[in-house]
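stuck on this:

***
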Amino acid sequence: MSMKLNLSASALSQVFNALIGVALMPVYLRLMGAEAFGVVGFFIVLQSWFMLLDMGLSGTISRETARLAGGGLSGTTYLRMWRWVQGMFVLLGFFGGMAIWLGADWLASGWLQLEALLLDDVRTSLRLMSVAIALRWMAGLYRGVVIGAERIVWLSSFNMLFAAARFVGVLLSLALFGAYIEVFFWHQLVISGCELLLLYAFTHRIRSELVAVTPEPDRADASLRSLVGFAGSLALASSVWILSSQTDRLMLSGTLSLTHYGYFSLAAAAAGVLLLVNATVAQTLMPRLTNLHSSGDAVALRTTYRQVTQLVAIVVAVTSLTLALCSADVLQLWSGDSALAANAAPVLSIYALANGVLNLSSFPYYLQYAHGDLRYHVLATIGFAALLVPAIIGVVWLGYGALGTGAILLLGHLIYLCAWTPFVHRKFLDGYALDWLFRDVLVIVLPAAAAGLLLVMFLPPQTGTFGLVARLGLVASILTICAMACSSMVRDQLASIWRRHFAGTA
């Protein structure tokens, strides 16, 4: 399957999912109220923390599926791995969901800051979300197989279908049964169950196509030991990363009122659009790099890595800078609430910048994943979390709130990008230590940032839908032109098109 087609399909899916989810959040807030929407925001936080139970298993099985498809793994060994990983997922999903179910009383009465919502309604919602979260988490294992097999077009279509069912379909449920918080979570539970069943069926078909069963007990034992080692590294890194990236949301959920937490969740959701860039690239790039490394094609691996880096740098520069520089305009257009836009704009600005830097600093992980060597990633992630988590807890306790946590995240991601990524590239791509940072990232992002700052300094503020849209469109257009002009990949592509179509006619 063409990587360009996979990347396009994945990007379309991620954009669709982001737009449909983010666009409807103000509708949920208006229908259920800001406090009930705060419970929805807590649901999102719990889903993220539930990923601590993944233990690196979904990423590992994705990589092993890519190795199987690339001829680097036997069918017998793969089946043995699959049975072990699936069994672990079932056990962890059950006990994780049960922990949330049993803790619903304490979470409702002792952690969340309720104002008008009834305690019984919140307790019931927490129990419903415990089952929905466990089912969605289980679906991640089967998604890992589909991604590893590079069936990205199918998965993208599937994800868009269920995003529509999850985000749009819930409006029908709320209309039919009432705009109650329990109705929202009953709907999420049913959709998550259907999603899991269909993914299970498709994954079974993929395994039947890829696996050629040949008894190889010795290789299977050795590969299983290797799998456990890689999964352990991935689990530790993933767990520490979730701890460092979600501590702000967890701490704020226990210190802000649910109403204010709902407003914070809106700003974080808007900035979270940028994280979909990360998901799109990871879903497409990691199996391709793994395949290229397994086949020994170092030249293609390096070329692919650089091209995707520049593409992401362009997208991130345009999106994060537009959100950061025009945050009040974005929130005003999105929510139609001037007070919300004024209060949440600074949070959106700083979280948009932090998430943009996060996208770029993720690339060394993709490289280490493809090589099957996560030692440096684990060490860096542990060190990063050891500094970041106490800082986040400190600024929340000192009362700096969401702006303080956003500032800590932005500073931490910048240090990681500028200080750590050159070291990783020196280890895994000879002669490419600082070149990646300067030639493929900063040369694109910094000129775009300078152009954006100059532009918004001279653009007058706008009111009304047309004026806001025009202002946002102008800023995004200028940023796009500037970022693309600074990309060597784009310039080479344009020069190639010119030579192919126009040079011979001159």
Observations:
- The chain is about 85% helix and 0% strand.
